[in-house]
Design goal:
Layout (H helix, E strand, L loop, with lengths): L4 E2 L5 E2 L1 H22 L23 E8 L2 E8 L8 E5 L10 H7 L4 E5 L16 H15 L4 E6 L1 H12 L4 E7 L10 H12 L4 H14 L1 H13 L13 E6 L7 H10 L3 E6 L6 H4 L1 H14 L4
Parallel strand pairs: 5-6, 5-7, 7-8, 8-9, 9-10
Antiparallel strand pairs: 1-2, 3-4, 4-6
Helix pairs in contact: 1-5, 2-10, 3-4
Length: about 300
Amino acid sequence: MPGKRIHMDGRSSPLVSRRRFARDVLAPAILFPLLAACGATGTAPGARRSKLPSAEAAGLTPKRHDVNGLSIYSLASATPPPNAPTIVLVHGLALSGRYMIPTAAQLVSHAEVYIPDFPGFGDSDKPEETLNVPGLADALAAWLGTVLARPVALVGNSFACQIIIDMAARYPDLLTAAVLQGPTTPPKERTWLDQVVRWRQNAKFNPPETGEIASEDYKKCGYVRALKTFHYSLVDRPEDKLHRVRAPSLVVRGELDPICRPEWATQVARGLPDGELMIIPDVAHTLCYTAPVQLADASMDFLAREGLA
């Protein structure tokens, strides 16, 4: 039975509910698979061909830990250097930690590195519930408390920045510093259409294999979970939490990034009590894969300036 709209004169009509169904259900269901194809051509000036190394080749080993009744998969430094800082890489929307291996490979000689998969994503257990941003932040905090039990530096890409901001605002004792690379999303662009446009603009900066990696990860989490998480990313308001982040934080923006706009990166950096902004030239949004050397160097230099490395 179709839904009804109640008019001021008491009449009812299914028109608005049909429009809402098209907007909230059909449009995302059609548009989200298009996002999976955004790995595309790799022909733009900021594109980099960066073949994904194996975890073993990157100096990482797989691990599993029981966290709140769920088996959480992660990659960790096989032989961490002595007296090195601990860095946890945090993956973005509907992905796993796999696409962050190139950055991990650059960090393992300088830090003890971990890359966990969030509950519901990658090779971690899939709970029935789809976690919103605070839920994912709680999951990250629980994993940190269970596995590491000490403050760490967090490095996140894209949507992961929203999770890190939320966690840092509510669990300040769990992190020493944060690197927020390409934080999402500018307030005026928190719609499905805006984000599809921006993701498509970013596609030309990614090498073709990133589309393959994303497609495999989307299948692992399932399109329903991916769609719900995308919705949660758009209704989250990280700007309202920035003032509660105590940890020193570096906002990193690729000069060519169409998703993290210049004004938004500046707003995030200025909103953080101890924040700074760094622009990396000639690169775009997915720096953990397309510019791992630059991102790793920026992260380590930042930690060194803060006396953490």
